[in-house]
Amino acid sequence: GNWVVQHEITGSLVYSSKGASARLGDDRVRAVVIDRPALDVWLAQQAQGHGADLWLSCRLETIQQERGRVRIGVVTRGGRRTITATLLIGADGAGSRVARFLGQHTNSDRVSALGATVALPRQEDDTYVRVFVGEDIAPGWFGWAIPAGDGLTRIGVGSLMSAKVSQRKLLQQLVARFPKEFQDARFLQFSGGTIPLYRPIRTYGDNVLLVGDAARQVKPLSGGGIRTALLGAVCCAQTALEALDKNDFSAGFLRRYEERCSTEMGEELELAHNLRRLAYHLTDAQRHNLIQLLGHPVLNRLINRKGDIDFPGRLFSLLVRQRNVREALLGIVPLNAATPRGRTTFVLD
Fold this sequence. Notes:
The protein is an alpha+beta fold. It has a domain at 9-23 and 110-196: D-Amino Acid Oxidase, subunit A, domain 2 (D-Amino Acid Oxidase, Chain A, domain 2, 2-Layer Sandwich).
């Protein structure tokens, strides 16, 4: 419901490390900023209302399979306990022990991120997200500033874990580098973590399913995971109910979960995964030219009309079908070199 919505987003401002910028969006609501802790509490209450037992301060330690069941050892406030079940659903996040048990944990394509809530009393365009790209800004990832309403903004940076850089230093540099965007910023709260970007892994096994971050159901371009995790949860619940009905918890039966997820979101995640690989190999000069290209009036109008924050891959597919756009994208052509007159003219097919 609207009670969890803190702010509405209508567009984005994208900045390169070399000074280019592009404004994408209009007056239509493209996304909403939510109160995540409140959403988590509501979801937990809903689960308890439907019969779930909620154990807080509980840590999974061991997993063993025996005679068609799974035995897990956990540590709770009251001590160690052992639980035996026919189905274990691993929704245990980026560092999933259940994924490790299935042999599906990998450090590839993981982003280390640091965020902060800041007070920004004089922010302009407070319905626009800011995105900052450049290898010296956020190696392998990007910086961000998301207005959250009431004068608050969520800012942050991330980098591939393989980059081995200080996130706090990157965040300090981001604020210093864009003084206009962060003027009079007052830091209120910090948070950090790991973002396991989507890559194909096996999300099922005998008596086991993975969902959410544990299954790497995370958008490769933005790092967002709520929508994809909810889609995965629906597919997971459907499969679990069928397994209970058939009393079949074999990997062969549970495989239908992965097939369902592929139908619901596989195409978009795969396309975004490939686009991210392409973006990762761009130089800062190419990113600069690309951002300039996004600011072209005709291309900008097309993006605003057809763009969808949840389906960037579909927009890219649409753009590359336009001949002039495709040619410009393939070469990342500087706008002042695209035609003899020093400007690009798009004729959309």
